[in-house]
Amino acid sequence: MVFRLVLGCGTVGRKVVERFHDRGDAARDRLLVVTDDTSTVETLRDESVLARDADPTDPSVLEPLESPDVVFVASDRTDSNRAILEHARARFPETSIVAYLGGNATPADRDAFETLADTTIDAETAMVDHVLESVARPSADAAIGLRKQLASIDGRLAVVMHDNPDPDAIASAVGLVDIAAEVGVDADACYFGTISHQENRAMVNLLDLDLRNLSPTDSLEGYDAFALVDHSRPGVNDQLPDDLAVDIVIDHHPPRGPVPGAFVDLREHAGATSTVLTDYLDRFEIEPSVATATALLYGIRIDTNDFTREVSPADFNAASALCPYVDAAVLEQIEQPTVEGETLETIARAIKNRVQRESVAVASVGRISDRDALPQAADQLLAMEGVDTTLIFGFRDEMAFLSARSRASDIDLGEALRDAFDRIGSAGGHADMAGAQLDIGILGSANDEDEVESIVSVVEEVITNRFFEAIETQPGASVGAYTQTSQWLFTIDDGDVEHEESV
């Protein structure tokens, strides 16, 4: 049997006593309320709650009481609660004390409560925390809306990732497929392009994820509904028709323009779309499989750079929820694949060919076959002394691919790349991580290698200058004279990107 002692019984205290009594705990355990509010004492007694009419700020009132297991200090006044707390701690030094701060606390009051109470209840903080929690998690209406939209699908659902998907996109698609199955909807996790990054391939293979690789020539007639994850517009980095009717959109990136979709959940505060899907799994009360949980946790870790970039409380909550289901051994294997020689060569060319203006470095790495090497080269260049912003680009076929990274607080890379390249390609991303793809169709009409190299050198100069100009226009940014560390820049790659992911 637990003995609970309530000292003072204001508005908060009364609600706690009522809830305790309604739960039936008072019938099993002992509860004593001490307050100098006679009417409250009479009401509590009428409700069969043991109550004593006495002043809880008087230390002599506490002397005859046996030591309780828990003390709740609960009058409405801060000064009264502080006096009660001081006497209660002196009388019951080993007892756990929960104290309500009241509404007029001074810094000295807060210090006293922090020192004397095991737990302090601050009404203002509790209210803010409640509001933030409500904002950070999807509302019940959102979960109901997703379930309703899934239930309305008569046929098969295609859950489409962005092209050449990263771990966050892959995991999010797998998570939504699991949710659809719970509602009775058959679904496929689909993507265009390739999964070329060694860690991404390891993730798919080791977790045995069931993905469908679509070709632009494949018919979509087998699907009756479409969902987009980790991007928000059809035809932008997914090779779907841009006028496709979309049923579901779940993403965490800031949109560029209207987002079509019967059900849309864009949670820009989340560090990863995997965080959003984890929250939906929780809302749907679905216990994730080991493969799905491991993929989702990896997706969160990659997109937040191990919880150091654009991370939110929701990301930590999601990671905590996933951990019991994750295969740590497989996750370690995914994170430590062998690095291919071509990736190392791309990084070496980026370092050799860099053009640097103050803390901004730009490099062309020439022709590439693996576009996933670009963000790795951008990350490596960012680690160099004196560099806080990087742009790496390369060429494949008739496309130029760009990958940018920054740790400068006064630069928004997503805006910079959109300003520089939206008119001649597709660009976007976050403040510290962005990318672009440019169609260099003129390369296809070149007659010989010398002409190709001549065109490439012009394109390199245009890309480099446009990026530096865009950085210079950023509020607070300063890019001065530059040092060219190599006479030539080189080439890029293919695609159509709205944003780039860390891979």
From TrEMBL:
Stored SUPFAM superfamilies? DHH phosphoesterases, NAD(P)-binding Rossmann-fold domains
Q: Which residues form the RCK N-terminal domain?
A: 5-99
User: Can you give the residue ranges of the DDH domain?
Assistant: 158-300
Q: Per its UniProt record, what Gene3D superfamilies does this chain match?
A: inorganic pyrophosphatase (n-terminal core) (3.90.1640.10), NAD(P)-binding Rossmann-like Domain (3.40.50.720)
Task: Cite the DHHA1 domain residue spans from the record.
Answer: 359-464
Give TM regions.
Answer: none
Q: Which Gene Ontology terms cover its molecular function? A: nucleic acid binding
What PANTHER family does the database record attribute to this sequence? BIFUNCTIONAL OLIGORIBONUCLEASE AND PAP PHOSPHATASE NRNA
Task: Tell me the protein's name.
Answer: Phosphoesterase RecJ domain-containing protein
**Provenance organism:** Natronorubrum sulfidifaciens JCM 14089
